[in-house]
Amino acid sequence: MAGKLLKMFFTNDDIDGLSVFEFSNYTIQGTMFPRASLGDFKNRKESQKPGVYLLFNDEYLTDEGLLYIGEGDPVLPRLQSHSINKDFWTYAVVFTSKDENLTKTQIQYIEARLIKLAIDSRRIKLDNSREEDIPSISESGQCEVELFLDVILDMLHALRFNFFEPLSTPITVENNDITYEFKVKKACAKMIIKNGKYILLKDSTVQGTVTPRAKPNIIRLREKLINDGLIIPHTDGLYIVTSNIEFNSSSYAADVVAGYNVNGLDVWKYNNQSLKELENQA
Questions:
Q1: 209 class by beta-carbon count within 10 Å (0-12 exposed, 13-18 middle, 19+ buried)
Q2: What is the pLDDT at residue 94?
Q3: 170 vs 95, which has greater pLDDT?
Q4: How far apart are CA 212 and CA 44, in angstroms?
Q5: From CA 89, how far away is CA 148, in angstroms rounded?
Q6: Counting Cβ atoms within 10 Å, is residue 74 exposed (0-12), middle (13-18) or buried (19+)?
Q7: Is this structure's pTM higher than 0.85?
Q8: In Å, what is the CA distance from 76 to each residue of 37, 86, 90, 274?
Q9: Taking a C-beta distance cutoff of 8 angstroms, is the pair 114, 52 a contact?
Q10: What is the C-alpha separation between 116 and 131, in angstroms, rounded?
């Protein structure tokens, strides 16, 4: 059976402090630390290497999240500058090479590609002022750096950072997938659970308007989905889902359907049993 081994090393007794992680047999290495541990990062050899970094805040899983993507050769001076000039970030993830193989052009290429992926995913607001041009690179060099990029994206996915994953997903519903339903007024929505994600299925219908009970984050999320064309006007005052949409919680998926905040564990049902009841049985 094919697989990947992700190794993570916590450099002190505090698991919330600085950590180093990597996939076995790959040269790309990640270093993650809270803003308060920038001094610890300064004392590590990774700080003196060329690399790409991500800065984000505690709200990265919500609509209040903010992300900055940058590069440096070496990375430390840029991070020290951001500690003075950027107040929003609370965490940093830095990617460098263990064998000194990353060049300035390669890290600029990765930075530009990550910014483009973040813009296209529409998952999180970017603090970057503009999209970077992808530098010209040889065909063989591009093949190599795209491999580096794939490793970085796989690491972030394994750590549950979904900044670069599109909201809409081409997931196929299989015969053994449990399909949950949520009906509210005229709306009828369906959802499956795949790889720990809650997938609101294409052709589900959702309420056309939000109610006064809707919290601001749900209003913003629905507006984003409408602006992206993932839910569009349908009939009878409803909207229809145009593509499978991925959520981190069943409640967020249900909130979009209802137009107000509800408990997804209670409202999503399969064979007249709620998701909460099925989880308890399991």
A1: exposed
A2: 97
A3: 95
A4: 51
A5: 25
A6: middle
A7: no
A8: 13, 15, 16, 50
A9: yes
A10: 7
Section 7-25 average pLDDT: 88
**Residue that the structure tokens 């491999």 belong to:** 147
H or E, element range at 33: strand 28-34
Residue 74's pLDDT is 92
- CA proximity to 256, closest of 192, 209, 212: 209
Say how many CA atoms lie within 13 Å of 57 toward its Cβ: 14
Q: What is the pLDDT of residue 80?
A: 96
Q: Which residues of 154-183 are buried (b: 16+ CB within 10 A; e: fewer)?
A: ebbeeeebbbbebbbeebeeeeeeeebebe
Residues 6+ apart with CB under 8 A from 249: 198, 264
Contact by Cβ (8 Å): 92, 33: yes
pLDDT at 1: 43
Q: Rounded to an integer, what distance in angstroms lies between the CA atom of residue 217 and that of residue 45?
A: 41
Digit-coded pLDDT (tens) for 65-79: 899 999 999 999 999
Whether the pLDDT of residue 130 is over 70: the answer is yes
CA distances from 123 to 115, 167, 204, 241 (A): 12, 7, 21, 17
Which residues, including other chains, have CB under 8 Å from residue 103's CB and lie 6 or more apart? 50
What residues contact residue 278 under an 8 Å CB cut-off, 6+ apart? 178, 270
